[in-house]
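Hi R.,

As promised on Friday, here is the backbone we talked about, encoded as structure tokens. Could you run it through your design pipeline when you get a chance and send me back a sequence?
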């Protein structure tokens, strides 16, 4: 079985590090990725991803990247199930970064 994702895009919002109740450091990086084809108007559309960064990956990314930086993300997709107070279930997916490569700074 394989669960792997690779994204290359620009940072659109700087992550802020926070701690879980158990003391683990975590941050969320917002990444903008161009699609590789044009829409019916001849324009390239973009996708936006929230990337979850844990522990050392979070700390390194925050210290190096800035808005507009080009980064490569290697990671996995994690599925989550939540239940509302009304007992309605819904599912989400998130990208968990295992490695962040800093490809180009904004300037």
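Update: got your reply. Pasting your designed sequence below so it's all in one thread:
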């Amino acid at each position: 079985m394989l669960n792997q994702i690779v994204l290359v895009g620009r940072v659109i919002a700087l992550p802020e590090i926070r701690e879980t109740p158990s003391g683990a450091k975590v941050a969320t990086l917002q990444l903008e990725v161009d699609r590789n084809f044009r829409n019916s108007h001849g324009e390239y559309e973009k996708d936006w991803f929230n990337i979850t960064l844990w522990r050392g990956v979070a700390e390194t990314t925050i210290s190096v990247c800035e808005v507009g930086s080009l980064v490569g993300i290697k990671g996995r997709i994690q599925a989550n199930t939540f239940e509302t107070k009304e007992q309605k279930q819904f599912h989400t997916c998130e990208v968990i970064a295992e490695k962040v490569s800093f490809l180009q700074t904004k300037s």
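One thing I noticed while checking it: The chain has one helix and six strands.

Thanks again,
M.
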